């Protein structure tokens, strides 16, 4: 597939078009989610880290809704939010989450920005896993979990190695399935959403992060559930 930068991302009209054609429920969820993210941020101490976390959370949440609606907008928003999330995760010492956000850049964001043909009519190329592909997927998950746990306990020292490693490996697996356009990615996104709520809730409780990401991942989980239930989205309908 030919590498060709998507120059449309420099045109304001492209962003307007990308925000059109979403399901009504996702528009409602977007407005509600932005309100929650801004509200939880200003309810706590306002610091530079809190503000960039808020910005990343808004872009990241919008990115997930764009994926649900099969819109290439996720490439731009995902790239920008992932770069900020990497900084936040390093400060919080959730090192597997750093790997996860990096995988988002290479598996979800750059293909959209550099391979226009990959992003074109994405909803028409959705398919499901066979039994053999399920086995390969689970094997991939187990291997990645082992590697991330080793990293969190030997290369770097994370206060939450098991939670961090499992959450990261679920997300890496989900992002790979998303790149390959398998609808089963949402099973992994749903479980990863639950694990991320636990991870960032524990992280905030231990004083290594604000509660903004805890609430943001609850919003991510609501988007995952929407993919299963909203008949106007393409992944399962």
Describe this structure in words.
The structure is a single chain. By secondary structure, the protein is mainly alpha-helical. The radius of gyration is 17 Å and the shape is globular. Helix content is 73%, strand content 0%.
Describe how the helices and strands are arranged.
Elements: H1 12-18, H2 24-42, H3 48-68, H4 74-92, H5 95-114, H6 116-119, H7 131-155, H8 161-179, H9 185-205, H10 212-229
Q: Classify the beta-strand content into a percent band.
A: under 5%
Shape: globular
**What's the story with the biggest beta sheet?**
none
**Class of secondary structure makeup:** mainly alpha
Q: Give the SSE string.
A: HHHHHHHHHH
Relative helix content: over 70%
Rg estimate, integer Å: 17 Å
Total helices: the number is: 10
**Averaging pLDDT over every residue, what do you get?**
87
Q: Low-confidence spans: pLDDT under 50, at least 5 residues? A: none
Measure the end-to-end span. Answer: 28 Å
Strand segment count: 0
What are the key terms here?
about 240 residues; mainly alpha; 10 helices; globular
């Amino acid at each position: 597939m030919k590498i060709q930068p998507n120059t449309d991302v420099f045109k304001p009209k492209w962003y307007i078009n990308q925000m059109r054609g979403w399901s009504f429920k996702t528009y409602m969820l977007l407005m509600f989610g932005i309100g929650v993210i801004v509200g939880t941020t200003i309810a706590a101490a306002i610091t530079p880290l809190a503000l960039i976390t808020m910005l990343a959370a808004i872009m990241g949440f919008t990115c997930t809704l764009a994926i649900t609606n099969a819109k290439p907008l996720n490439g731009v928003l995902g790239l920008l939010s992932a770069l900020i999330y990497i900084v936040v995760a390093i400060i919080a010492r959730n090192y597997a989450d750093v790997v996860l956000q990096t995988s988002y850049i290479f598996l979800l964001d750059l293909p959209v920005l550099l391979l226009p043909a990959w992003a074109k009519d994405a909803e028409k190329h959705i398919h499901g896993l066979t039994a053999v592909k399920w086995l390969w997927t689970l094997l991939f998950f187990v291997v990645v979990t082992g590697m991330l746990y080793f990293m969190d306990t030997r290369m770097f020292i994370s206060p939450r190695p098991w939670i961090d490693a499992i959450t990261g490996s679920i997300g890496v697996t989900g992002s790979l399935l998303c790149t390959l356009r398998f609808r089963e990615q949402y099973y992994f996104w749903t479980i990863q959403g639950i694990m991320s709520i636990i991870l960032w809730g524990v992280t905030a409780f231990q004083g290594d992060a604000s509660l903004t990401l805890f609430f943001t991942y609850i919003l991510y989980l609501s988007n995952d559930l929407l993919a299963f239930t909203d008949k106007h989205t393409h992944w399962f309908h």
